[in-house]
Structure formats: C-alpha cells, structure tokens
Amino acid sequence: MSEESDVKIQNLRKEVFDKITNNQTDDLRALINVNDLKINFVDEFGMSPLQHACYKGNKEIVQMLLDQGAAVNDCEHKHGYSALHFAALSGNSDLCNLLMSHGAKINAKNSVGRTAAQMAGFVGNHSCASAINNFIPKANLDYYIKPRNLQKEPMLHPHLADSFYLFITQVNVHPVKVIMNLKKLPGLIDNLPMVQKVLECMSKKEMNKGADANEIMSFKYHYLCYLTDELSKSIQRHVSSNTEKDGTNEDKKYEVADLLIKKFLKYKNDGTQEYLELFLRDLVREYSYRDTAIFRQMVATLTSSDPPSAVSVISAAINGQQVFKDVERLICETCGEEKAPKKCSKCKAVQYCDRECQRLHWFIHKKNCSRLNQSSQQNDVPESAPNNEEITNAVTSRLQNLIVN
User: Fold this and answer.
1) Residue 29 needs a FRET pair 20 to 30 A away by CA distance; which of 137, 145, 296, 353 works?
2) Do 195 and 283 share a domain, yes or no?
3) Are 298 and 313 in contact (CB under 8 A)?
4) What is a single molecular function from GO for this protein (predicted)?
5) How far apart are CA 192 and CA 169, in angstroms?
6) How far apart are CA 203 and CA 216, in angstroms?
7) DSSP SS3 for 331
8) 134 phi/psi in degrees, rounded to 5
9) Residue 338, domain extent
C-alpha cells in the first residue's frame, strides 16, 4: 500500500470520527458507503467508531455501525472501557439494550474493575444500570420451550414465551408490581406452577456457570419464583376453602391476587408494612446460595441497627445502588413505579400509574385523603396581595428621602 493511500485512509478515518462527534448520521452513512470503509479501526486513544458513537449516546449511528459489521466487544481502549461502558455512561438505556441484543458482554470490566452497570450506577444513570442488570437474551428461553432428552412436553409452553420474557425482564421488582404483572401478562396466572418451576431452574442454572455465574440474576429468578409461589399457594388455599361453596374458582384468581396485593400494602399504625417486610426477609433467608456476595450484602444491610426497608434493599441488590437519588422522583404509592403520571384527583398529594393502582391503594388512602386535601389547599393559598396604597406611600417616602439627601 502506497504512502498516498495510507494518508487517504487516515484522513477518511478522521472524517468518520468527526462526523460521529457532530452527530452527522446521513453524512457518515454516505462516507462509509462511497469509500467502502471497514469500520473496525481505532483512534490514538484506542477508541473505535462504535465506542465514539456510544459515548455520544447516538443510537441511530450505533445501529448503522452494527449493520456495517462493527465488533461490539472489541476493546483496545487504554482504560478498558467497552462500547457498553460508554453507552452506560451516556445515559441512553435503549442504546444499552441495542448493544446487548447484539451480544455485548455485560460482565466486561474496565481497568479499575468496574462493569458497565456499576459505572452507570456510579454516575447516576440508574435506568442504564437497571437495563443492563435485567437484560436476558431471548434465545435463553429456547432451552425451556423445547422438549429435552426424554421429555414429552417442554418445561414452558411456547405460547407463554413472550409473556414470560416480559415477566423476567421487568425492572421494577416491587412485590405489588410483580403480582400485577402475573395478572396482566397473558397466560401466566393460569400456569403459575409451570412459571415457578422454570424460574427455580433458571436460578440454579445461573449459579452453575462457573466463572460466568451471575448471582444477581440467580437471586432475581429466586425472588420472582418465591412471589409466584406465594400467589399460587394463596389461590390453592382459596380453592380448597371455597370449592364446596362456590363450585368453581377459575374466575377468583384475580380476586385472590388483589387480596395478596392489599396484604402487601397494608400499614400498621406506626407506618410500617409489617407483613411485606417479614415476607421479604423470609424470601431472602430462603435463597440457597449463601456464600454469594449479593446474599451477604443484603443480610448485612437488613440486620444493621437502623435498616432500610426490605423492598429498597432487594431493589438495590437487583438493579444497583442509586448513588445519586433524584429528589423529585414521582413514585407510585401502589407499585413503586417511578415517574408515575397521575395524581389523586381529590387531594393531589399522592402519585399513581393509572386507575388500577389507585383502585388497589384506595382502601388505605381513603383514610387520609381528606386530611391531605386540606393540607394541600392550605399550601396552595396565595399570600395576600400587597396593598396598593401601602406600596405608593413607601415609594413616595423613598423618593422624598432621595430628594432631601
């Protein structure tokens, strides 16, 4: 290759980096296509075009580079920051999901031993940390929806695969939200024993991967399994005690799920959710892998002198610790979902996702709604308007003082 060709290629590569920096998607596409450029090259810092695009958080350019054959796990960066690290630092969770769907390694560490999820949590990009921690390749379900060895039936019915995938990838792991999803996602509430069995198998399988064991996902599967089992047992108890009276209980499953949700939501006079707290502590205690860091961390936190709620401890263990918490997060009173868009129409003091969340929480909120409404009205009362005559007199007095002086 001639020296002139080398210079031309170097100039083209520099132009590629410039267009990525300036978010010039169409110009970049034309540049690559016209010159038939191979895009797996690096700059003087060891960063590839893909890593630059991830740093910018530009999903469109990243998609284009992946379509052009960009290697998602190639990393020559001097500090070991992969494309996923840069995407996590950009704050674009959709970009993180895109990279992971193309095979980005979520356990890759930089030079200081931090994964992309850990770096996202450290800088406050909690949506990215949660997206990475909860990502599962959909192909992983193939093992469960196809008969294995001498099995005549798969562990999971194929028609449940989509619902089950959405269930296990949920980011909000508040127990109420988990039960609501079991109600909402088609087919799950009618096949709870099957769902539970698959989750139990997945939890064990994660811990049998040797060096690649993912204890966070193993615990998450255990967590979802335990909640699924609790709902299944509640339904069975209802069936056993009411079969003779009602004759059929198929339509009662959703009512039983609502009753369990209300047990989770119920407060004592001191403001604690005693049933939920004890339930979740038992859930943690039942986790089989007690030598894992996640188990030890949760136990140490829950047994400290002034522990936070078990819900917050488990959520932090699964989704990552929120180093910088948003002060004005609007959290649903029922299911803990962030950025809840609705308010109680009467008191305007509490947030909800929708009418379903408000309905489930009403048996608690109705006791305080009137009081909160009065408090809200008092806070909204504007200060009395200043008297125009007083303003005129004050201004006149100041002007006279200025003239005298």
Assistant:
1) 137
2) yes
3) yes
4) zinc ion binding
5) 17
6) 10
7) strand
8) -105, 5
9) 324-380
Note the pLDDT tens digit of each residue in 79-130: 999 999 999 999 999 999 999 999 999 989 999 999 999 999 889 898 898 8
| Claim to verify: residue 164 and residue 270 sit in the same structural domain | yes
Average pLDDT across the chain, whole number: 88
CATH number at residue 27: 1.25.40.20
Name the domain boundary from 304, 323, 342: 323
241 and 168 housed in the same domain: yes
| Residue 393 placed within a domain | no
Q: Beta partners for 352? A: 342
* Distance between CA atoms of residues 130 and 316, nearest Å: 10
Dihedral angle at the C-alpha atoms of 199, 118, 209, 310, nearest 10 degrees?
A: -40
Q: Is 123 helix (H, G, I), strand (E, B) or coil?
A: coil
**d(C-alpha 132, C-alpha 53), whole Å:** 18
Share above pLDDT 70 across residues of the chain, in percent, rounded to a whole number: 86
Instruction: Encode 31-44: b = buried (16+ Cβ within 10 Å), e = exposed.
Output: bbeeeebebebbbe
Q: How confident is the model at residue 327 (pLDDT cuts 50, 70, 90)?
A: very low
Contacts of 23 (CB under 8 A, 6+ apart): 56, 58, 61
Count of domains in the chain?
A: 3
**351, 296: one domain:** no
Tell me, yes or no, whether 119 and 218 share the same domain: no
CB 187 within 8 A of CB 163: yes
Q: Does some domain include residue 371?
A: yes
Whether 302 and 227 map to the same domain: the answer is yes
Question: Same domain, yes or no, for 301 and 171?
Answer: yes
Burial (0-12, 13-18, 19+ Cβ within 10 Å), 346: middle
| Confidence grade of residue 143 (pLDDT, cut at 50, 70, 90) | very high
DSSP state letter for 75 = -
- Boundary of a domain, candidates 66, 101, 135: 135
Reported as a single tens digit per residue, the pLDDT across 14-49 is 999 999 999 999 999 999 998 888 899 999 999 999
For 272-298, what is each residue's pLDDT tens digit?
Answer: 899 999 999 999 999 999 999 999 999
- CA dihedral of 323, 327, 333, 338, whole degrees rounded to 10: -60
For residue 400, tell me if it sits in a domain: no
Query: Same domain, yes or no, for 55 and 103?
Result: yes
